[in-house]
Design goal:
This protein is mainly alpha-helical. The chain has one domain (about 10-64). It contains three helices and no strands. The chain has helices at about 10-25, 30-35, 40-64. The protein starts with 11 loop residues before the first helix and ends with a helix.
Length: about 60
Amino acid sequence: MLIIPVKEGENIDRALKRFKRKFEKTGAMRQVRERKQFIKPSVKYRSKVQKAQYIQRIKDEENQ
């Protein structure tokens, strides 16, 4: 559980901004989205390989 102490006289918007930053660092939302639907390990691996090929192709084009 995230606890954000609000200092005396502090603007609530600033405290909310600190909360959002801290929440983003925990990665909870990303984890919820990943768990929303099951993806087979073979599909994960295939997409990882495709992404690596895409990045390699871009780097090769830059070098030419």
